[in-house]
Specification:
By secondary structure, the protein is mainly β. It has two helices and 16 strands. Strands 1, 4, 5, 7, 12, 13, 14 and 16 form an eight-stranded antiparallel sheet that branches. It has an eight-stranded antiparallel sheet with strand order 2-3-6-15-8-9-10-11, with no helix packed on it. A hairpin with a 2-residue loop joins strand 13 and strand 14. The radius of gyration is 26 Å and the shape is globular.
Amino acid sequence: MRVVVLSASFLAACGFAPGASGTQPDPQPDPAGPDASVDVRTCHATQPDVRLCLDFEDTALVPVIGDMSSGRHDAAAVLVDTMPRATQHAALVTASSSITVPETADLDLAQNLTIEMWLRPSVTGTNPSPLANTGQYALAIQDDQVACTFGTHTAVSDQQLEVGKWAHVACSYDGTTVRVYVDGELDACKTAAGTIANTNGSGTVIAAGYAGGIDDIHVYARTLDPTQIQALAGVTSDKITCP
């Protein structure tokens, strides 16, 4: 019987490279995934045309809060903590906190826009601005009521926010009417006309002077209708026309 001995050079030429066990290990996946630098999170907003999306789902919210809109306009943050809201994360701020979105043309909206968010104020009797694109539009609190300003036009809700209770609030403008929503109900309107002048070059300020919980801050380049606002608030209401 003849024994054929194959040389290492012959084996290598045939594509074999024996190791200690004589077999090659299976390829191992990268533990970091295909690309650990890619952010695969999506915005909580269920409506299109989102220009700003701060959902506060990061485990740490300083020094940067990620914007989950396609524009990725991340906000600089100081003294911002996390807190729970149902099954999600929210932000907990004090009057000394700071959240600033840099100036961007994506948020210079002339008309047809909506602002919506969740608020849980911890104090009353103050007049903070949960969102302000100064000189252009804002969602503020005046005497515990929600104030929506677009250009020079402001409408104020009849309902008041309660300390320690989450409320969904929204403002919209379609070039003819300012609308204020509280917990999905169309609570106040004001007739208005014209476009919003682009007079702000310092960005969008979040939670200026505000203390409490804040979550799911979304700015849309479109006017959401009452049914869409109700869906975001998770309620059904027959208050869909201006009072």
